[in-house]
Amino acid sequence: GGSFGVNENESKVIIQRYITNPLLLKGRKFDIRCYLLIASTKPWLVLFRDGYVRRSLSEYRGDDLEDRFAHLTNAAVQKKHESYAEMKEDSIWSMRQLQEHLEREGAAPSGWVDDVLTPHMMRVCSEVFEAARPKLQRRRGFFELLGVDFVVDSQLRPWLLEVNTNPALWVSSKVQHQVIPATVRDTLDVVVASWEQTREVGAGISVGELPGMEGFRVLCDESSTA
After folding, report:
1. Which has the closest alpha carbon to 137: 60, 40, 202, 50?
2. 14-32 confidence digits (pLDDT tens)
């Protein structure tokens, strides 16, 4: 039999099961980028925000794993597609577009995105934070905006793909122009106001008084449970 060696000095990797039956939009694979904001670490304030949908530019064929344009939806791959310039607007959808399309095609019940998908993504993001919490440094003024990606299978089950420390804040489509600048602006408003509220040692954060909270949903508010 064969043998292999292990280099203990190499970084760790995670092997995930590939979702071979993704839900398709007009025959194309898609994923969803949402945001996880750790607005404060002392006290903890962790927020969720909806993002947008990224569609591949090539039709999905499960038996052709060599076609990266069909299987990988991220911009770094899709922008190399020969038709990217003319198709890029249709490659990025809003969450509302997703819901309207699924309803029109009879692929999901009315309100599924808001009532089922988003709450599921929120629960997963909360679990991601709780898993990482023991390893995170706590210091006043620390914050991080993370990009969290999900894929949905043909049975309408969402799966976590990855959590990105680089949330890709550049814009290349109309939908991203609607989503990303507002996300950055509101993130800074929330983070700065949270920092100002905790000037005094032991002071908590009054979430209701924070500017920029309209697009966020609270996952963890340590001040409210203290």
Report:
1. 40
2. 778 878 899 998 888 899 9
Pairing of strands 158-164, 144-152: antiparallel
Long-range pairs for 178-182: beta carbons < 8 A, 24 or more residues apart: 178/94, 179/51, 179/52, 179/94, 182/215
Tokens of 194: 């949270």
Please state the separation of Cα 110 from the chain's center in Å.
22
| Length of the chain measured in residues | 226
CB-based burial label for 6 (10 Å; 0-12, 13-18, 19+): exposed
Burial of 131 (0-12, 13-18, 19+ CB in 10 A): exposed
Report how far Cα 199 is from the mean position of its chain's Cα atoms. Answer: 31
The reply to whether omega before 43 is within 30° of 0 (cis) is yes
* CA dihedral over 130, 39, 212, 223, signed as positive or negative: positive
Distance CA 200, CA 202 (A): 6
- Cα dihedral 75, 155, 18, 149, rounded to 10, equals 40
Q: Does the predicted TM-score (pTM) go above 0.90? A: no
Parallel, antiparallel or unpaired: strands 24-25 and 144-152: unpaired
Cβ atoms of 203 and 43 closer than 8 Å:
no
What is the per-residue pLDDT across 169-188, written as a single tens digit (0 to 9) for each?
A: 999 899 999 999 999 999 99
Q: Identify the CATH assignment for 24-225 out of 3.30.428.10, 2.40.10.270, 1.10.357.10, 3.30.470.20.
A: 3.30.470.20
